[in-house]
Amino acid sequence: MRYSEFWELVEEVLGSAHGRELVATLVVGALENRTPAAALEDGADPREVWHAMCDELQIPQSQRWGADLRRPAPPRR
């Protein structure tokens, strides 16, 4: 996931202003008790940061990817 995709999901799933506020202020245990912004600044993978935020906020899997266009393809059998 690119940083631009991370921010698109933040805005789409959490809302523009609210999402950016959460990135700046939400302390997430899975991110070593850092905010998502601090984790990204420290070089954390945006995908890991996104999933940690979603876990912390208890966002269901079905809502984590916003529009179906970004939803990962199911594994092939």
Protein model, in words:
The chain has 77 residues and is mostly helical. The chain is 52% helix and 0% strand. It contains four helices and no strands. Helix 1 (3-14) packs across helix 2. 16% of the residues are buried. The model has no long low-confidence stretch (mean pLDDT 90).
What tags apply to this protein structure?
mainly alpha; 4 helices; 77 residues
Gyration radius from CA atoms, angstroms: 12 Å
Shape: globular
Number of strands: 0
Count of helical stretches? 4
The stretches of 5 or more residues where confidence is low (pLDDT under 50) are: none
Proportion in β-strands: under 5%
Q: pLDDT average, as an integer?
A: 90
* Most strands sheet: none
Number of discrete domains: 1
- By helix and strand content, what is the structural category? mainly alpha
Helicity range of the residues?
40-55%
- The helix/strand order is HHHH
From the N-terminal CA to the C-terminal CA, the straight-line distance is: 24 Å
Helix and strand arrangement:
Elements: H1 3-14, H2 16-25, H3 36-41, H4 46-57
Helix pairs in contact: 1-2
